[in-house]
Design brief:
Shape: elongated
Helix content: 55-70%
Number of helices: 9
Order of helices and strands: HEHHEEHHEHHEEHH
């Protein structure tokens, strides 16, 4: 097959599947190596970027998905119902951050870090499909381990959790100082 035929096949696969598709599944469907499949996907993705197309191909942790470009959102909502936007409160963001950076993590570990019960926040994040159960800890009671989802990657515009920003030592010290001052204020009340 010619490169154009492979690109057309990848385009058809990604369009028809709707959700993300693992590189290995695409390669198997095309009966080519993963490396060749990745080159074809990149070529197709570059073509979408170069054209004034409303579509793009995004990578999500080794999987690929065809979706609309963010610049086209305003036109889409004129046709379709505007999707319900989930509001991420400070509590939800704090809990989500802990899961994203510490995964796999248990509810007890999250609560130890936050210092308060997190059951409601965890349930809400699972409902929003931003975190999910990824297994059980091999310990008494076999507590649930949580991790982030593809939807998390999609919402925050990163290909994998390795792309999340890191804090330098100075920022960590500032946060610790602020937390200590906050605890001191509460004790003085």
């Amino acid at each position: 097959m010619k490169i154009e035929e492979y690109e057309a096949a990848v385009e058809a696969i990604l369009f028809a599947m709707g959700d993300s598709v693992e590189l290995s599944r695409i390669a198997a469907a095309l009966e080519i190596s993963d490396a060749d499949a990745k080159r074809i996907i990149q070529s197709l993705s570059d073509r979408y970027s170069a054209q004034s197309s409303g579509l793009q191909i995004i990578e999500l942790d080794g999987s690929y998905q065809m979706c609309t470009k963010v610049s086209q959102y305003e036109y889409l909502i004129r046709i379709a119902k505007q999707p319900k936007r989930h509001v991420l409160t400070d509590v939800l963001l704090e809990t989500l951050s802990i899961v994203a950076y510490k995964q796999p993590v248990t509810r007890v570990e999250i609560e130890k870090i936050r210092g308060v019960s997190c059951e409601h926040a965890i349930n809400r994040l699972v409902e929003y499909n931003l975190i999910r159960e990824i297994g059980r800890l091999d310990a008494p009671g076999r507590p649930i381990l949580f991790g982030t989802t593809e939807e998390f990657l999609r919402c925050f515009g990163v290909q994998s959790t390795d792309d999340l920003p890191t804090l330098d030592a100075e920022q960590v010290e500032e946060f610790k100082q602020e937390a200590q001052e906050e605890v001191q204020l509460k004790l003085n009340l």
